[in-house]
Amino acid sequence: MTKDQKTEAIELLKGKFSQYSNFYITNTESLSVKQVNHLRKVCFDKNVEMKVAKNTLIKKALESLDSEKYAGVFEALHGVTALMFSDSPKEPALIISTFRKENAKLEKPVLKAAFIADELYLGDNQLANLVKIKTKNELIGEVIGLLQSPAKRVIAALLEKARKEEEGVAVEAAPAPEAPAAPEASAPAAPEAPAADAAPEAPAAE
To answer: What is residue 38's predicted lDDT score, i.e. its pLDDT?
Structure first.
């Protein structure tokens, strides 16, 4: 590579390291061209950018960004290096794990290091832990689930209370059935007053 090409490659790598907070450093040595192409396709389908680069260029790109921050990464820069950039902290780990299962005789790609949200994971033995990392959406989903659980109980209790209150109001508003009217007692007929004796006739005047 010419000096200009190296400079261009370093700038490209710096852009990727700045763009992504998660990147994996892997060793794809011994993989056939067909296998590498298949790995690239899987990465593309999963929105993971895979780039093969020289270790010296990777180191210069990281040093120019923050040599102290990335100091632990430098010891992983040996052999053939393929970088995997992703917005997801665990998607590259899932890709590597699945690729190995599909190619039972291979233990490649080998995970040399992973830099996840300012945390460094060194060595292939970290792959199992990386597969279990929660993504941002998964963590948000868990928090929402925890918040919704008591909220659902409160809402259910309020709805039940409202239902009972409505039933109580309905009972109070319903008119009470009228009692049947008592039959009127017929008053006993008053006894007839005895007829007054006729007044005696006055004697006729003589």
So the answer is: 95
